């Protein structure tokens, strides 16, 4: 009886350790970005650069920037494996009528990288975040208008 009990305790402990390991793997990008305070700094720094960036700043002249900052922080938290909820709209829905081209997409990505450099985020961590964002390009960049 005692032996069975011990075996059960051991297998429970192993199961918990496995779960904790899976959780840690998922959380590692979130943690490498500095958890919510780190992500908050990254987004604030990125948006400051975006608003000075001649290539893209005009796109944001009617945007509620505090709201955009809040939603980007939620989104970066979620995609890096953090314990957050994204409360904004779908990427395609939000961007499809903005006429954004590929060069503008890369301009924003560059501003994000400069922001992360300034905040001393390791390049391997930067690359992981960029890899999570890259697949969104197809929803953000408007298709080229067809020639007449
Ligand atoms: C990986 C790249 C990008 C990500 C992850 C991203 C993410 C977001 C998010 C989360 C929102 C808020 C959604 C909502 O309002 O519910 C948003 C809104 C917006 N984005 Fe992006 N975006 C990206 C690229 C761009 C680019 C390249 C531009 C323009 C140059 C742009 C222009 C805007 C504008 C103007 C809004 C506000 C729209 C509104 O207020 O109705 N985004 N974006």
Give an overview in words.
The protein is mainly alpha-helical. It has one domain (28-140): Globins (Globin-like), CATH 1.10.490.10. Helices cover 67% and strands 0% of the residues. The longest helix is centred in the first third of the chain and has 31 residues, at 2-32. The protein is elongated. The N and C termini lie far apart (82 Å). The model has no long low-confidence stretch (mean pLDDT 90). It binds protoporphyrin IX containing FE (HEM).
How much helicity do the residues have?
55-70%
What's the story with the biggest beta sheet? none
Under CATH, the homologous superfamily reads Globins
- At the fold tier of CATH, the topology name is Globin-like
What's the level 1 CATH class?
Mainly Alpha
Oligomeric state of shown chains: single chain
Mean pLDDT: 90
Distance between the termini: 82 Å
Number of domains as seen in the coordinates: 1
The coarse overall form would be: elongated
Give the cofactors and ligands: protoporphyrin IX containing FE
Count the DSSP helices: 7
- CATH architecture classification name: Orthogonal Bundle
Order of helices and strands: HHHHHHH
């Amino acid at each position: 009886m005692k032996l069975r009990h011990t075996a059960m305790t051991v297998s429970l402990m192993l199961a918990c350790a496995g779960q904790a390991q899976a959780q840690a793997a998922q959380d590692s990008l979130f943690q490498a970005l500095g958890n919510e305070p780190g992500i908050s700094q990254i987004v604030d720094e990125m948006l400051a650069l975006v608003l000075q960036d001649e290539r893209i700043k005009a796109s944001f002249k009617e945007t509620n920037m505090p709201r955009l900052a809040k939603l980007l922080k939620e989104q970066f938290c979620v995609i890096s494996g953090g314990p957050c909820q994204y409360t904004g709209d779908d990427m395609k829905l939000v961007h499809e009528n903005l006429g954004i081209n590929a060069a503008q997409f890369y301009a924003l990505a560059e501003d994000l990288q400069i922001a992360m450099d300034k905040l001393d985020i390791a390049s391997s961590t930067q690359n992981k975040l960029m890899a999570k964002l890259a697949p969104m390009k197809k929803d953000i960049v408007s298709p080229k208008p067809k020639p007449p």
